[in-house]
Each structure stands twice: as structure tokens, then as C-alpha cells.
Amino acid sequence: MQPTEFIKTTSQLSAKSATGVKLGPLDVVRSTFADRGVTGFYRGCGPVVAGNALKAGTRFLTYETIRDLLRTPGSDTLSPVSNLFAGIAAGCIESVVAVTPSEAIKCVAKPRFRALTRRTRLIESQRAGLATSGGSMAMIGSAIRTEGFLSLYRGLVPTVRYNLATSAQGGIRLTCR
């Protein structure tokens, strides 16, 4: 996931750079491999992996907990409506606890186009050749110090709205075993 995400985002951001020259995916692969080797594609993937693990853990733990609370005593089955509710609630909680903060760590909104455009912090810093002493954790700490803790929750409402739709389907999918 990380190499393809890196290639896609770097290619998308290249058109927005100061030079305005758009790099295609193959150009990104060539230049990254030439500059940093294979490890260049995985640089900064620690926070992405940790965020994905937190998302999945939050969703399944929350879904299972809510499902068990909704189950009537002595019954192994749950109504479709209760399954749907458990899925939606799990998705909303996942949005607040894991999705929005992990995306905020990965992305920073441009002031002029806050709702429309995002630049990936970790990938953008690598593309720009910025050295991050202390690695990803130092970059996260610096962002929180300069922008505040609540900056991790920019975009919360659209993220919750999006997860409402996908979680409704997820609640149904999680129950089909």
C-alpha cells in the first residue's frame, strides 16, 4: 500500500509544485529509486501502518461491543436494524478515534482550499527533500506544537459523514459470516 500511495500522491503533488512540471508515476518511480533506492518508497510508512491498525482495531472492537450490548439475553441473533446500527456507530467512533487524526497526520489542508485540497505531509516533506530529524514522530510533534492538538480533528464532520455511509454497508458486511 505505501509504495503505491507514495507514487500516486507524489505524482499528484508534482503539478502543484513551484516548477509546475507534472511527473507521471513512472517518473516518480525512477527518481525515487535513483535518489533513495527501494527504501525511499517506504519512508514514513510507520504512522500509516499504525493508523491503519488503530482504525481496524477500533472498528472491530466497537462493532463487537455494540453488537453484544444490543443482543437480547439468551439470543444468538441480532436483527438487521441492530446490525446496521452497530456498524454505523462503530464507523462514527472509528472516525473520531482513529480516521480523522491519522489522516490529519498524513495530510495538511491548504488554507485557500481547505475543504478541497490536501497535501500529504509525510510524502510532501520527502518530495521536497526536507530532512526530518527525529523522523515521523518529530514531524507529528512539531505539527501539534505549531498548529495545536485540535488540528488533528480538522475535517471531522466530512469524515464522519463519509464513514456513516460506508459503515452502514460495513455493518451489514461484518454480520455476513
Distance between the termini: 26 Å
Strand order of the largest sheet: 1-2
Main sheet properties: 2 strands, antiparallel
Q: How many beta-strand elements? A: 2
Task: Give Rg in angstroms.
Answer: 19 Å
Unreliable stretches: 108-119
Summed up, the domain count is 1
What does this structure look like?
This protein has one domain. Residues 108-119 have low confidence and may be disordered. Strand 1 (107-109) and strand 2 (118-120) form a beta hairpin. The chain is mainly alpha-helical. The protein contains seven helices and two strands; from the N terminus they run ααααββααα. Helix 1 (2-14) crosses helix 2 (25-36), helix 3 (45-70) packs antiparallel against helix 4 (80-106) and helix 4 (80-106) crosses helix 7 (156-175).
Which features does this protein show?
177 residues, mainly alpha, two-stranded antiparallel ribbon
What is this entry, summarized?
By secondary structure, this protein is mainly alpha-helical. It contains seven helices and two strands; from the N terminus they run H-H-H-H-E-E-H-H-H.
How are the elements arranged and paired?
Layout lengths: L1 H13 L10 H12 L8 H26 L9 H27 E3 L8 E3 H7 L7 H13 L8 H20 L2
Antiparallel strand pairs: 1-2
Helix pairs in contact: 1-2, 3-4, 4-7
